[in-house]
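2024-03-11 09:14:02 INFO worker-7 job=invfold-0412 stage=load source=structure_tokens
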């Protein structure tokens, strides 16, 4: 571990990857919840407000994924219905 780096960021990213590779629903949910917990821990240790807000948003998105809800997106086109499906 190097000085000045937040170790929980790497752990959270690893849990997200584990959630994406999980073969069953329970494993996926458990990994997303652990990722959210690690993002919260990363946010607690962060001194930069911008990164703290980013980590908090990632924790909320991971919890939404664990609950089976679509992740919040800043992309406007993702929230508008497609004309091709009508």
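2024-03-11 09:14:09 INFO worker-7 stage=emit residues=86
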């Amino acid at each position: 571990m190097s000085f000045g780096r937040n170790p929980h960021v790497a752990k959270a990213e690893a849990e997200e990857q584990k959630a994406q590779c999980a073969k069953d629903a329970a494993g996926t949910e458990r990994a997303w919840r652990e990722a959210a917990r690690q993002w919260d821990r990363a946010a607690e240790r962060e001194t930069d407000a911008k990164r703290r807000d980013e980590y908090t948003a990632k924790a909320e998105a991971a919890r939404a994924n664990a609950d089976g809800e679509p992740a919040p997106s800043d992309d406007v086109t993702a929230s508008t219905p497609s004309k091709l499906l009508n």
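2024-03-11 09:14:09 INFO worker-7 stage=report msg="The two ends are 53 Å apart (CA to CA)."
2024-03-11 09:14:10 INFO worker-7 job finished
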